[in-house]
């Protein structure tokens, strides 16, 4: 839910189209279901890229246009 609100806020302000966005997740891992939802929302927002830093998991996830889900960086 927070992700949708965040995207909407920036989308409505005209800040997402062609932008590279970075998010930080502090307490939990991003679940499998949310990975697809985040990718779909990023696509609709017109982002050029999205990077998600997981503090608790110490993993970095990414998305680029055309991807159906966010993926873990190698």
From TrEMBL:
Residues of the Putative cytidine deaminase C-terminal domain: 9-73
Q: Which InterPro entries match?
A: Deam_C
Q: What Pfam families is this protein classified in?
A: Deam_C
- Supply the name of the protein: Putative cytidine deaminase C-terminal domain-containing protein
**Could you tell me which species this protein originates from?**
Pseudomonas nabeulensis
């Amino acid at each position: 839910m927070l992700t949708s609100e965040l995207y909407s806020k920036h989308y409505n302000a005209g800040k997402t189209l062609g932008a590279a966005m970075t998010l930080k997740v502090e307490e939990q891992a991003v679940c499998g279901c949310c990975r697809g939802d985040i990718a779909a929302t990023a696509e609709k927002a017109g982002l050029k890229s999205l990077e998600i830093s997981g503090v608790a998991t110490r993993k970095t996830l990414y998305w680029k246009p055309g991807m159906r889900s966010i993926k873990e960086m190698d």
